[in-house]
């Protein structure tokens, strides 16, 4: 086996595509060499050695020793230098580098090969004693920390004490002699800590560093990082050993990092920082303030420190040329590390640069314009989830923030408004054209109208899956949940945070991106949906096969979803319409009625309201498909809960409180998720489904008349498990359709279909499809019923399951392809068999999750449906799945 790959002097054994074997850093160093760029020569020990090391009790393949010696020979041939040779001294860096960049890994060791003797050789050769001893002390510090495990602070303390004694402020002020004293103290410290002296033999130093890199693959930081980023342990890390170049060789030397384009805006301009007379991580460590690379950036930043362009024009010019070359070669924005040794530029790293969502769009679109990449490549490069950042107003990053509390970043975007403590107040304010932030201990279904009316929602209790969080995300409203340090006093109308008391009407701002609660108004940046965003979306639309619909029941959501490019409504949950205003009163009357007659009377009051709801949605969707789900939740959700509420409702409805209490008790369920809900309601009380069907068809007739573009309503029956349930309800719907057509003399095209959200329905899909004209996979309930896990109760153990590796991800966030997905596959196949061309879609949270969307494409669904703010994400993800 070939364990080592060399690079240097315009040639390399590896290349950029060898990332799995050489790690990202090693592969790109090799590639840069082959491109003829100035890269100090070196070699990469492969990730396979790392795996060998762990498979064989932390030992090395037998030939590795000889292979490393041969690779050192390779460096010697190019540089004329060898480790430990006082005439022609070679120093190296030892750098870790996995397939994916991993901040949890070992820090780089620089200047390896220095000892009490070779440091003199370095001083003599460079003619700079100060430089030599500065390098040596850096080496002792790094090596002792990274390889020998002596704490970094121990050395910092010694250095700070010395600097204070000597009256120095900066490290660069220390003289050679002063560094020599520091070195003596450092070495004494190491000996004290380890009971043996700092290793002097370069070979021992080198093997120590190589072993430390491999060991670091299993350190706690790296393991945690891998878990958080789904990086498998089997990847392993490579080790890069490379001849040193020196950015700390005086005033004509420097080190720096740069992006080929601006990583926050995407602007096509070299962007970066450097430090004169510095080495390695000094730039990022913040020891001194770094300087701008270009003049333009320096002027923009208002800095009085000279740019690299001004200070070292020749090195700057080569750097500009190289950065252009690398960007063209990799066809992507690059993140570069470089060092200038006495005026000569050396490249030490390149990789594709991390960027904001905004920059990602701009870079991709610009590169298409420049002919560097195709439209499909541009579409493939954007992380769909990152679009979320772009669809909401955000706090101007330059604005000062007066943070009064922290909660969870439950729903993205920022919002400013007056504090209100009830949903009714929020609605009142909205009617007056004022902006409200709804502040609640927690929210419930009865707050829907208030959440709609406010700019943002703040709760003091509840997590990322609390009612407030889930509903706010669905509405695309900013939400901070569980801000536990806030105390809300509804009676007094105050909210208190660490001694600050705010009253109803005071202005606050919430930042749903990071969970901050801020006092007062803060300047915002508005989302920009034209330009680059629109271009990428257009290309995505051209590439995708699946349609993207939205889950929406309010006109505002439907309009917003249209503006985000939704191609219809995939799920209109009618129950939300029964909470608003007078409707809840009629709804409660219906529930309290003792007879069918009584129920029909109450339902007659709801009919015109439902009809006008649907009419408005049909108008907004102008001819696009609209799927309406019949009433789904159990009836007790509509009844008051606390004694105070019961008393209030009793007086509004003019019924005895006892009767209300009694009905509430009757409707009580031990497990409402599996209770009297969905089509079971329609079977027990067909008049409810009939009223809803009538509202749908009458609205369809009217919308057809008004807009001229006839709607094809899709009536959806929820929670079907037994084919006869569906047939029973469908017969009622068909009957209503027929009578509406007879009454109006207008023909209506419509479909009646079902949700597939119970395992039995998936298994009996062929029989159900004999009468059902479409399926919509309700994967929220299907996940609950397949796993037998209630989503509301999963929080207490799912995270533990993840940590123990029993489940890889939350199945409510990303579809469980093997289990729930298999049921979807089965149902899709059976459905198509019984009814070729049957329309298949997915509603529920998974419809907006990129990984789940990929699965939907595989199964060949016709559309996905998601909340309005996820529509652009779904459009892009559907395109990527199809590419
Ligand atoms: P990281 O993975 O943390 O970026 P690197 O291995 O890239 O670590 O090393 C960090 C820095 O150390 C580099 O950016 C560079 O400035 C410096 N460095 C690494 N190798 C050398 C070398 N051979 N000569 C000079 N500086 C080096
Ligand atoms: Mg680096
Ligand atoms: Mg459901």
From TrEMBL:
Residues 530-881 form the PEP-utilising enzyme C-terminal domain. Keywords: ATP-binding, Kinase, Magnesium, Metal-binding, Nucleotide-binding, Pyruvate, Transferase. One of its GO terms (molecular function) is pyruvate, phosphate dikinase activity. It catalyses: pyruvate + phosphate + ATP = phosphoenolpyruvate + AMP + diphosphate + H(+). The keyword Mitochondrion does not apply. Its EC number is 2.7.9.1. InterPro entries: ATP_grasp_subdomain_1, PEP-util_enz_mobile_dom, PEP_util_AS, PEP_util_C, PEP_util_CS, Phosphohistidine_dom_sf, PPDK_AMP/ATP-bd, Pyruvate_phosphate_dikinase. It is an enzyme of class 2 (transferase). Pfam families: PEP-utilizers, PEP-utilizers_C, PPDK_N. Residues 20-58, 62-294, 308-367 form the Pyruvate phosphate dikinase AMP/ATP-binding domain. The keyword Isomerase does not apply. SUPFAM superfamilies: Glutathione synthetase ATP-binding domain-like, Phosphoenolpyruvate/pyruvate domain, Phosphohistidine domain. Gene3D superfamilies: 1.20.80.30, ATP-grasp fold, A domain, ATP-grasp fold, B domain, Phosphoenolpyruvate-binding domains, Phosphohistidine domain, Pyruvate Phosphate Dikinase, domain 2. Its cofactor is Mg(2+). Coiled coil: none annotated. Residues 435-515 form the PEP-utilising enzyme mobile domain. Belongs to the PEP-utilizing enzyme family. PANTHER family: PHOSPHOENOLPYRUVATE DIKINASE-RELATED, PYRUVATE, PHOSPHATE DIKINASE 1, CHLOROPLASTIC. Catalyzes the reversible phosphorylation of pyruvate and phosphate. This is Pyruvate, phosphate dikinase. The lineage of its organism: Bacteria, Pseudomonadati, Pseudomonadota, Alphaproteobacteria, Hyphomicrobiales.
